[in-house]
Amino acid sequence: MPPLDANEIAVLRAELDRQLGRLERSMAVTDAALEPIKLDQTAVGRLSRIDSLQNQGLTRNLQEREQVKLAQIQDALRRLSEGTYGRCVSCSGEIGFNRLYVMPEAAVCASCGDSG
């Protein structure tokens, strides 16, 4: 598989930047949704508080997934700046453009991804 050319790298860098911006905006909304729940009995009914706690649990899960995705995107941008982007961190083989186009944060090739 040939290494990425300059045009492919530019397309992938733009996609990583786009995803990073979208993720940062989403994380700001998620953080705001995790504000402490008021336990004032007169302000909210018991079931509403239970719903709020369940929603907050789901939001925490979302926040964890967003943090993982953020780390993956930041790692991909670091590899881009180091000149190692597009090379599998497991086998050092080339990661195909089609795989990176779908998952620009991918750090491993399809073969290593399937086996690991």
CATH superfamily: DksA, coiled-coil domain
In CATH, the architecture is: Up-down Bundle
- Uncertain ranges: none
Q: What is the number of helices?
A: 4
Rg from alpha-carbon coordinates: 20 Å
Q: How much β-strand is present in the residues?
A: under 5%
- Element order: H for helix, E for strand: HHHH
Q: Main β-sheet, in a few words?
A: none
What is the CATH topology descriptor? Four Helix Bundle (Hemerythrin (Met), subunit A)
Distance between the termini: 21 Å
**Total number of distinct structural domains:** 1
Give the tally of β-strands.
0
Query: In CATH's first tier, which class applies?
Result: Mainly Alpha
Oligomeric state of the chains in view:
single chain
Helix percentage range: 55-70%
Q: Give average pLDDT, whole number.
A: 89
Overall geometry: elongated
How would you briefly describe this protein structure?
The chain is mainly alpha-helical. The protein is built from four helices and no strands.
Attribute tags:
116 residues, mainly alpha, Four Helix Bundle (Hemerythrin (Met), subunit A), 4 helices
Structure in words:
Helices cover 66% and strands 0% of the residues. With 116 residues, the chain is mostly helical. The protein has a single domain (6-115), classed as Up-down Bundle (Four Helix Bundle (Hemerythrin (Met), subunit A)), CATH 1.20.120.910. Helix 1 packs antiparallel against helix 2. The chain is elongated. The mean pLDDT is 89.
Summarize the topology.
Elements lengths: L5 H28 L12 H37 L14 H6 L7 H6 L1
